[in-house]
Amino acid sequence: MTLTKADIVAKVYAQGRLSKAEATQAVERTLELIKQALVDGQEVLISGFGKWSVRDKSERRGRNPQTGEPLVLPARRVVSFRPSRVLKAKIQATIEQ
Predict the structure, then answer these.
(1) Do 97 and 90 meet the contact criterion of CB atoms below 8 Å apart?
(2) What is the homologous superfamily of the domain 43-97 according to CATH?
């Protein structure tokens, strides 16, 4: 099952402290801040969860899977996520139970 933005809003709203509109605005604003930080080239660290960062990948050789023809894939920027030790431990604990 995939956790969607609507699911997150519903869970924030279910806490009972915010109205549905306020919960939606809080989630939207948080995600917007994360996106803008990444666009600006900053790292985003949420303690106990993980860190997002933007990496530059250089140009590389590849091939068209349909024709097998070689081609050059351009340089690009990608977002990477590294989970915290706390999150890794919680995920591992669910396997061991």
Answers:
(1) no
(2) IHF-like DNA-binding proteins (4.10.520.10)
Domain(s) of CATH 4.10.520.10: residues in the chain: 43-97
CA 51 to chain centre: 9
Which tokens is 46 given? 């949420």
Distance from the Cα of residue 83 to its chain's centroid: 10
Is the pTM higher than 0.90? The answer reads no
Residue ranges of the alpha helices (H) in the chain? Answer: 5-14, 20-39, 85-96
Give residue 97's pLDDT band: very low, low, confident or very high (50, 70, 90). Answer: low
What does the block give as tokens for 13? 């709203």
